[in-house]
Amino acid sequence: MRQQYSVLRDGAFRLVMPLLSILLCSPLLAQLDMSAQLVGTVADPSGAVVPAAQLVARNQLTGVETRTTSDERGGFVFPSLPSGTYTVTCEVTGFQTFVAPGIVLQAGKIVTLPTVLQPRDGFSQVPLGRSLPHPPPKQETGSSQKGPFDDVVRSLSEKRFDDALRQAESLIASSPRDPRLWTAKALALAGKGRSEDSLGSFRKALDLRPDFLPALQGAAQTEYSTGNPHASVSLERILSLQPGNETAHAMLGTLDFERKDCANAVTHFQMSRAVIADNPQALWQFGQCLLTSGRADQAVEVFSHLLSRQPDNASVRYNLGLAQLQARNFSQAIATLQPLVGLPRPDADLLNLVAAAYEADHQTEAALAALRKAIEIAPKDVRSYLDLATLCMDHGAYALGTEIVDVGLRNIPDSAALYSMRGILHAQTMQFNEAEADFSHANRLEPDQVYGTVGLGITFMQKGTPEDSVRVLRERLVRNPEDATLNYLFAEALLRKAIEPGTPEFDEATSALLRSIKNKPDFAKAHAQLGKLHLLAGNTSKALEESELAVKLAPDDRMAVYSLVRALKASGRNEEARPLVSKLREIDARELKEEGDKNRVKLVRAAPPRPIER
């Protein structure tokens, strides 16, 4: 079986807050009086927005109620609430009543309330743990009078964008250097759907005052929504002014995800957990980046949370199973994936994944059944044949593995990967001529791939003709000089010829291992072999250095441990070598036991799937 299954279900999306919400939630509108604003978006558990939701904000001290309705994009705003503590309810036909008590509103601030409705059948009460306060920008001095500007703000709040645009332009004529007016014009243009013109006005405001946060936020959102590459620059500027702005971090996380820069995406998503906690797509991207970054344990946590919100989403369940498998929680992965396996027609990717989990959990017969079912469902998917043949090889069933590959080649006759796999199976049974023929055919089918060459090189070494292995690998290295595996095997083939220090071939082997390590620094076997060469050359200090690194990278690798034992003994450090000798015996015993466990599993020869007519 493949050691690490890595077919990840993609969760592409855009974390786009509608420009209308920016307009209604803008700090520009909050700076005009000492009241507070409460804003948000109403959505269902899948993340789909819910329009026409009826919302009530009730002041817990006075009992005064203020009502509003979510717009066509699910956005809502209570534009002017007195300071105090509120209980917010939201009602929509077909959903439970949403209740959020204890919302504290402070003068001049905006609070964002994520509002996720659950299907009817009960009553939902949610804590306020994720309200996001946004500080208002500083008051302007020396700008236009409040009265006329207040008319612009009122027009924007009431979505009378034509009026707001006319009013803003009139004020700009008399006060052209007021960034608030240019920002108001930009918001009016955005409300009219004129994104490019809106962005131009935001940028004019920023020319006048580069740190004017409402304009900077509006420009960033417009750039983000329209796919403008300058969005990252604007968002970074926001973070320079507000390092804790979670929305900016979340948007940057999405942009990094789209650029396939998962390292930075993870950093930004970690800084925006409150914002993305109720956003399924953002959680998906976060989990996906954690998985591809090798942080499977954290990915399990993210996808578990996402699955709790979307229990019927097959792709989320698949990714959780993949994360659990990579985190070595094999039984959990099987349990997670089981509902999908039980579907009338599960897909082949899923069956390959669950087979990997079964095999890792020592349930070989279940793994075998899953892979056979995958071949029945997708007879032209090469991966199922490769996994099933590998499973047979792992358990010493070489003849059965060869039969499976033969079936695969009848269905996919031009598969270089299948010819290479059959070559490996032939080599395992000492059928070197047949192996050589299959590897050569694989090279002809896909000359740009290296597995045929690698197979030939290994076959020649097993056959006892390292000269042929050196020749084949040297020819391939001309085309792939930086390939870590080819360089390692080339050095291994040269070492099989019993080369001596000071000879050209010795230097060639050393250079090949250095290239291998340069391109794959964590290649433990390459470090161990380089340590062996240093030891042969009499350089015990470098031999120790490379051997110790090899053991650090792969503590249970026999070659690495043996290399370090030899280096320690050559340095006269026999006491330090003694526990490693004991460890070698433990490694040998464990490998013998694992081999015995594999051989005790008997793979039943079932009728192979019928070939498909081409």
Comma- or semicolon-separated keywords:
Serine Threonine Protein Phosphatase 5, Tetratricopeptide repeat; 60% helix; 10 strands; disordered N terminus; Immunoglobulin-like; single chain; five-stranded mixed beta sheet; 614 residues; alpha/beta
Quick rundown:
This protein is of the alpha/beta class.
C-alpha Rg, in Å? 32 Å
| DSSP E strands, number | 10
Approximate strand percentage: 5-15%
> Span from first to last CA?
28 Å
- Could you tell me the mean pLDDT? 80
Low-confidence stretches: 1-7, 11-34, 121-146, 595-614
CATH architecture of the domain at 32-134: Sandwich
Q: What CATH first level of the domain at 32-134 would be assigned?
A: Mainly Beta
Oligomeric state of shown chains: single chain
Q: Give the structural class.
A: alpha/beta
The CATH topology of the domain at 32-134 is Immunoglobulin-like
- Counted by DSSP, the helix tally is 29
The CATH superfamily of the domain at 32-134 turns out to be Immunoglobulins
Q: Quick one: overall form? A: elongated
- The proportion of residues forming helix, as a percent range, comes to 55-70%
What does the model show?
It contains 29 helices and ten strands. With 614 residues, it is α/β, with parallel strands linked by helices. Among the domains are: 32-134, Immunoglobulins (Immunoglobulin-like, Sandwich); 146-243, Serine Threonine Protein Phosphatase 5, Tetratricopeptide repeat; 521-614, Serine Threonine Protein Phosphatase 5, Tetratricopeptide repeat (Alpha Horseshoe). Strands 1, 4, 7, 8 and 10 form a five-stranded mixed beta sheet that branches. Helix 15 runs antiparallel to helix 16. The two termini are 28 Å apart. The model is unreliable at 1-7, 11-34, 121-146 and 595-614 (pLDDT under 50).
